[in-house]
Each structure stands twice: as C-alpha cells, then as structure tokens.
Amino acid sequence: MSDDNSHGFCPDIKMVEVASPIENCCRGSGQSLPPNTNSTWAPTTHCDTSPSLMESSDSFEPRPFPPPSLLDVPVEYIIDQLHNLAPHYWDKLETADCTLVVPVPYPGGKHASEPLASPSPSYDPSGLGRRATEPTLAAVPLIRMQLHTDYLSAHSSFLRSLFSGASPIDLINPTSSLHPPGLRTSSGKFTIPPNRLPRLMPSSTPSHPVLYLPIPDPASLHYVVHWMYFGTTDVIEDALVHGVIQWEGIARNVEYLGLPTDIKVFLGRWFERWLNPDRHGINDAYVSDEEGESDTACSDDDDYDDDDDDLMDDLDSDGIRWKDGRDDDEEPCRGRTRATRCLSWASTASTSAVSYESV
C-alpha cells in the first residue's frame, strides 16, 4: 500500500460511474450481483436530535450483509477482496452510499480543532439543506463522514445490525463496561438518554442512509475507519506512537462498534508491549540474529488467545487501571500522556468535515 493510500491524501477526481465495493469484490464468484445503489449525495448541515431511534421509515431500506445473493460466498473472501479494492474507494466521496454524523464533545464551550486533511467546514445559513420539520437548537460541532456501507458492515457487528434494520435499544449489551453503573435501573436494565443512541436522520434516502452515531471517542474514528478499509494497523500504530490518539479512546470505539478479534489482538499487544514495558520488554517481541532462522516464535504470541475480548478489563470509569496494581499518579509509561488536552484531529483522510451546526 502506498504512502498516499495509507494517509488518505487523494487528489480530486471527476465524477465517474463506479460499481459498489461488494459488487466488484465478488465478480467471478459465480453469484448473482446486487444492484448498484451508490449515488452522489450532498449532506445536509443540520441534525435532528429528536428522541426517535431507528424507526421504520419509507426512506430506509434495510441492508443485510452479506446480501442474500452472496450468502454462499465465504465472508472471509468478501472481506479480503474489499481490502484489495480499498484504494479505489477510500476517500471517494462520489461513490459513498452512507454518511456517519458524529457529535464532538468539547469542554468549556471551546471548539475542537479541525482534521488536518479535512475539507473546509460546511455551513447552511439559509437552511436550504434542512427539512422544515427539523428543529433548530444549539450549535454543536459535528464530524460528517461519507463512507461505504459494505466496509462498515463487513467489520462492525453493531453497524451491520443497524443497517439491517435493528433497533439500537435491542443491541445494547447489559454487561458492557461502556455504561456507568449509575445508568442501571432497579430491574438491571440500562437507561440510555435518547441523544446518546444512534439513529437514522430524516435526511436519509433509500440509497443513502444518514446515521447519527455518538461514538465514545470521535478523535480516533478516522483511524478505525482506515483499518476497516485497508485491514492494516500501521496508521493506528503511528498515531499511538506520536500521541495523536489515545489507547483508551480507540479501545472504547472498538468495543462500541463490535469490531472483530484481530484489531483487539493488536490493541492488547500494544497495551502490554508499549504502555506496560515492565511486563513485556522490548526485546521480548524479537528473536536474536542467531535464532532468527529457528522455529522460535515471539514469546507473547500465545498470551492473547483467551483475552481477545477483554480490552476493557483494564479500564474503569475514571480511566486506566493497571493490572499490576500501580496507581494512576505514578510515572506514566512510554507512549501515553496523562496531561489533559483537547482532542486531536489529525485525520488520516479527507473523508469528513467538522462544522458547528444546529443539531
């Protein structure tokens, strides 16, 4: 993968007819192909924060993954082909068939910085991009990402269920560590405020759903999406090394989205090798030159077979909690800063725009 694709700096191109990712990746499989539902779409600049969730709507057509016509094709093959086609769809807004609208929390009323590689913020002072039924409330910063449902559904069990028509309330896991204990009722169920639940927005069309997604850590969402497209973790690792994103934030996003085991293994190894070098020295990850041709494997490769789904065991509601008993006020390890700072918005691609709009 070239440097341009790794960092998402793609030149502007003219509008062309391009088939959907799922259609291209399955050519030659012997299966009938679903119709191409991609369309060019100009996003609205106002969001609806009414308590309606993923309600049945004439403007929403459920999108199961894989499509019924491809049920006999191995999912692993589909995902592998999607990764091969990623350079043709990454940052190609004209072929995007869905939009994620992510609210950005910011402390003290200060606006977060914009992504380094994002387009200019979009505004709609005349309200032409807003439906008459949408309310005008306080302005909040939003990230708007135009993406492809095939890539999102192939990797995120949560988004796959939402695009298939499931209710977000039905998808809440009562054992998830993402919900503070104070939100649990006497019946043992969680009560989540409506504005913290994902939902389809009124501006959705049958060919282009617009999903309001209050993800835990918006700062690292670009990097997670890059992994969904290319299947590599080098961009995430580089951002972690330079402190652009935080391990805790991306780990919460992984749990929230229901991402598969391989990225959890990567984050688990990162935690052990980099954030906690006292337990796994740098040399543990490598064999010596004399042993390089032997059958000796990395000593920690087998440590995560039973812990792939336990990323959040090291986190509590106040932040990181070290397994070896160290307190948060001790000297931090390499690769992690404990200083309070604004969210980092170094984007890996110009797939979004940050704007301060009425939601």
Automatic annotation (TrEMBL):
<feature type="region of interest" description="Disordered">
    <location>
        <begin position="109"/>
        <end position="130"/>
    </location>
</feature>
<protein>
    <recommendedName>
        <fullName>BTB domain-containing protein</fullName>
    </recommendedName>
</protein>
<feature type="region of interest" description="Disordered">
    <location>
        <begin position="288"/>
        <end position="310"/>
    </location>
</feature>
<feature type="region of interest" description="Disordered">
    <location>
        <begin position="36"/>
        <end position="65"/>
    </location>
</feature>
<feature type="region of interest" description="Disordered">
    <location>
        <begin position="315"/>
        <end position="334"/>
    </location>
</feature>
<feature type="compositionally biased region" description="Polar residues">
    <location>
        <begin position="36"/>
        <end position="59"/>
    </location>
</feature>
